[in-house]
Design goal:
single chain; alpha+beta; 4 helices; 3 strands; 47% helix; globular; binds zinc ion
């Protein structure tokens, strides 16, 4: 769910072959497409998560009204990398 809208995440075998991209954010459909790991195109679980967050950040920026910032691939990758790292390393402690 993003900004009250259900987001579908779909893995495809042919995304990289067709678009030379590991992921896509389809704004009009509220869908994240990800290249599935294949024997001929291995993608680690970490890389798959990073790809997910990259596309999610595109969606978040657009939902927040910053579509122009969403066009900045370097910014999107930086934020996605930080979010991914935070989630991978966060420890929730009882106090
Ligand atoms: Zn991108």
């Amino acid at each position: 769910m993003l900004a009250g809208r259900t987001v579908q995440v779909k893995q495809r075998d042919d995304l990289y072959g067709e678009y030379e991209e590991y992921g896509q954010w389809l704004s009009d459909k509220g869908t994240i497409l990800l290249q599935r790991s294949l024997a001929a195109l291995p993608i680690s679980a970490d890389r798959l998560e990073e790809n997910f967050w990259h596309e999610a950040v595109h969606g978040i920026l657009e939902a927040a009204g910053y579509a122009t910032l969403s066009e900045d691939e370097k910014l999107v990758s930086l934020v996605a990398g930080f979010v991914h790292q935070l989630l991978k390393t966060a420890r929730f402690e009882d106090v």
